[in-house]
Design brief:
Helix content is 57%, strand content 3%. By secondary structure, the chain is mostly helical. The chain has a single domain, classed as Arc Repressor Mutant, subunit A (Orthogonal Bundle), CATH 1.10.10. The chain has a two-stranded antiparallel ribbon with strand order 1-2. Strand 1 and strand 2 form a beta hairpin. Helix 1 runs antiparallel to helix 5, helix 2 packs across helix 4 and helix 3 crosses helix 4. The longest helix has 19 residues.
Length: 115
């Protein structure tokens, strides 16, 4: 039944009046605790895996893919930061990604793909 007048979300519900109408309205934007824990674990694992690379490789991947940053960067932009060509950045990126594909590192992240 639709109410003709607006109703406050603080309207008491039930005999005990210990609940309010707002308690029963689903927040579709709320993140489930399990999803939040998985996301946090993914961030921590990604940080650990990236830390196993050289500092330069880690920074190149972070910049290229926007990990821990507001945006990703082009090969040209990253090259300017390191004062090297975009081709050299591409090579560093490719080597770092090959390292990440090694089972000793990829195993740590693979479980997140199954979810």
């Amino acid at each position: 039944k639709i109410a003709k007048e607006p109703i406050s979300l603080e309207t008491p519900i039930g005999d005990e009046e210990d609940s309010q109408l707002g308690d029963f309205i689903e927040d579709k934007n709320a993140v489930l605790p399990l999803d939040s824990a998985i996301q946090e674990n993914l961030k921590e694992t990604t940080t650990r895996v990236l830390a196993s690379l050289t500092p330069r490789e880690e920074r190149v991947l972070r910049m290229r893919f926007g990990i821990g940053m507001n945006t990703d960067h082009t090969l040209e932009e990253v090259g300017q930061q390191f004062s090297v060509t975009r081709e050299r950045i591409r090579q560093i990126e490719a080597k770092a990604l090959r390292k990440l594909k090694h089972p000793s590192r990829s195993r740590k992240l693979r479980s997140f793909l199954d979810q």
